[in-house]
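Long-time lurker, first post. I've been practising inverse folding by hand and with some scripts of my own, and I keep getting stuck on stretches where the structure tokens seem ambiguous. Below is the full token string for one chain I'm working on. Before anyone asks, I'm not after the true native sequence, just a reasonable design that respects the backbone. If someone could post their per-position residues I'd love to compare against what I wrote down in my notebook.
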């Protein structure tokens, strides 16, 4: 019984810390880098809110609608900015996955929160299996790619187009580690659908 709750709290704390770091990064970034950091902070905090164990804190019914609307707007924003940076396409996938998870976890949506981890109907548990599988495959590849990029750290950020600054908030390896962390967290959240 304590396993899922503990892992949920750990996932929530990790996502919240990642979101906080990305929010701090907005102070040292400019232009496209700042937009990217804001989008990543939103994802981190949103994932933290969705990762709170349902057995401990049951989200209100309207909360899932708020998540869907918020991340739907973030998806549109990412689509708009994807003409400037390819990395925003990843944000588009992430925001759309958050909308999908919010709808799947909403009461009546057939998700893990509705059926309390598998006690719901087998036909609706986890949303659409094909879509969940595609998102899991995307995040598996993203995590492997991000992890590989962490090994040989260079002084520029892919997608941001800037050089690493001297402050701790502008450290490239921390930015890449945050992206890796959020990718792993998204993969874990999709597994629980």
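-- Answer (accepted) --
I ran through it position by position. Result:
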């Amino acid at each position: 019984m304590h396993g899922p709750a503990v892992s949920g709290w750990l996932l929530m704390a990790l996502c919240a810390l990642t979101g906080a770091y990305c929010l701090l990064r907005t102070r040292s970034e400019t232009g496209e880098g700042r937009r990217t950091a804001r989008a990543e902070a939103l994802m981190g905090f949103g994932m933290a809110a969705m990762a709170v164990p349902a057995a401990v804190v049951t989200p209100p019914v309207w909360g899932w609608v708020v998540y869907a609307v918020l991340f739907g707007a973030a998806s549109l924003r990412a689509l708009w900015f994807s003409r400037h940076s390819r990395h925003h396409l990843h944000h588009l996938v992430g925001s759309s996955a958050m909308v999908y998870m919010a709808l799947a976890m909403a009461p009546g949506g057939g998700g893990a929160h509705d059926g309390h981890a598998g006690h719901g109907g087998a036909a609706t548990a986890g949303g659409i299996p094909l879509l969940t599988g595609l998102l899991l495959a995307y995040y598996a590849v993203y995590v492997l790619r991000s992890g590989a990029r962490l090994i040989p750290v260079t002084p520029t950020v892919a997608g941001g187009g800037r050089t690493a600054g001297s402050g701790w908030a502008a450290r490239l390896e921390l930015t890449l580690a945050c992206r890796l962390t959020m990718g792993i967290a998204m993969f874990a959240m999709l597994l629980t659908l």
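A couple of notes from the structure itself: Helices lie at 2-28, 31-51, 61-81, 87-105, 112-115, 129-150, 172-191. Residues 112-124, 160-165 have pLDDT under 50 and may be disordered. Happy to go over any region you disagree with.
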